[in-house]
Amino acid sequence: MGARTGAEYLAGLKEQRREIWLDGTRIDDVTEFPGLASGARSIAGLYDMQHNGNGGCDMTYSSPSTGDPVGLSFIVPKTAHDLSRRRDMMSAWAHASYGMMGRTPDFLNLTIMAMAAAGDFFGDNRPEFKENVVNYYEFARENDLCMTHTLVNLQRNRTPAATSMDYTTDVALHVVRETDAGLVVRGPRVLATLGPLSDEIMVYPTRSSLLARDEDAHKYAFAFAVPCGIDGLKFICRESFDLDKSHFDHPLGSRFEEMDAIVYFDDVLVPWERVFLYGDRHKCNNMSNATGQYVHTGHQVVTKNVAKCEFVAGIASLMVKTLGSGDIPQVQGLVAELVENLEITKALLTQSEVNAAIDEWGVMLPDRVPLNVARNLFIKMYPRMAEIIQLLGSSSLMALPSERDFNGPLGEVLDTYLDTDTATARERVRLFRLAWDTACSAFGSRQVLYERYFQGDWMRNAALLLSIYDREPLMEQVREFLERD
């Protein structure tokens, strides 16, 4: 098949019947269901970009298997030029949603690429697992799959004295039994972003120190991928933040609802050919770092963050211009903070590519340190960015009549009194409705929560950064200074 069109992606969603629940209702067709259909159309738009040239940016490359065009996010980068081409492609997709869709298909495309390139890691003890992961990568690439993933078990107790995972209950996803056909798994996982809009789901190992000592931990040590429509798999969605409103009233929520879902595996049979790891606790704990998967996805994440920084800085700047508040020192300081965030993120992304090097698998790997720094900083940056929008908007974020109000009996009144020196009333309200949807609405609040947590716990990330950062040269400088006469 090669690179798909948007119509082919939507047709695939229609053809594969899945068990998807939202607000107590089972959804038969996500491409038509209010609250999900607009998000599906936005993803379809990304697939169409692979065929419309996109202003000269390469979106595809030639498949090494067939020669057909396939998505560029599947490429195994061998050179710095490959990385920059891939980043340009990912940037084009990120800018299509202005960074508001964090789980576009390129994220998991990079994941399975990194895993396949490091196939020997999976095949050390069981050679068939290398064959499985390589075959799945080629299947995903040639069919241009849209994938979701899940890697976190639910917890019943999060007190410091409690274990991070209670293996004596059914809270954690686990292997019930082995069969000749495959593994039978049962239990829930969170949080499958884009799950209802995806073709397949990848299940990562849950990293936990318990996996290194628990006698039954092999039941929880696995990695695999299955179709979203496989028997026994259920998606339980949160409420939709696409409120079926116009683009004027909810410009972001009406377009970019990517949906998050709890996933429940009800005795799902995972065929052996779809299993990548099983029973090896050490490999499960180290899969992400050993394969470079976290670094490659970090390349996508920080590229997305640049687009998001640009968009928020643009919104803030237009708000200031519309209100005529640009000469106020406090306002200048707030907007400058957004510019600083943007330039820091861009610089770290660039540094990761400049310092890229071939890894042990023969893959050009971006420098993980600047990517880790950028990801960790964004956890703190984005909530502050939303706060700055609130501070700049003030009461203008509340004085927001709807599109119907403008078209109703009092439309002339609104046109008369809500204009500014630089914008008509409709232009002003349309802009500030965008600001509201960015920083105040349910959609905007979800964005803040997403950026706080999807990149991991800030303090754990800090510890991981220190574990890979060589501080010895820094300390040696100080020692040399202290030893001077």
Can you put this structure into words, describing what you see?
This protein is an alpha+beta fold and 485 residues long. It is 47% helix and 13% strand. It has helices spanning 6-15, 37-49, 80-96, 106-117, 119-123, 127-143, 281-291, 293-323, 329-354, 368-393, 403-407, 411-417, 425-439, 442-453, 458-468, 472-482; strands spanning 19-22, 25-27, 60-62, 69-71, 147-150, 174-178, 182-189, 200-203, 222-227, 233-237, 261-271, 275-278, 357-358, 364-365. A six-stranded mixed beta sheet has the order 2-1-10-11-7-6, with no helix packed on it. Strands 5-8-9-12 form a four-stranded mixed beta sheet. Helix 8 runs antiparallel to helix 9 (329-354) and helix 8 (293-323) packs antiparallel against helix 13.
Give a quick summary of the entry.
With 485 residues, this protein is of the alpha+beta class. Helix content is 47%, strand content 13%.
In this structure, how is the largest beta sheet organized? 6 strands, mixed
Strand residue content: 5-15%
Q: Which segments are poorly predicted (pLDDT under 50) over 5 or more consecutive residues?
A: none
The residue-averaged pLDDT reads 94
Helix content: 40-55%
- Would you tell me the structural class of the helices and strands? alpha+beta
* Total count of helical runs of at least 4 residues: 16
Shape: globular
User: Number of DSSP strands?
Assistant: 14
Q: Strands of the biggest beta sheet: in what spatial order?
A: 2-1-10-11-7-6
**Helix/strand order, N-terminal first:** HEEHEEHHHHEEEEEEEEHHHEEHHHHHHH
Radius of gyration: 24 Å
Distance between the termini: 72 Å
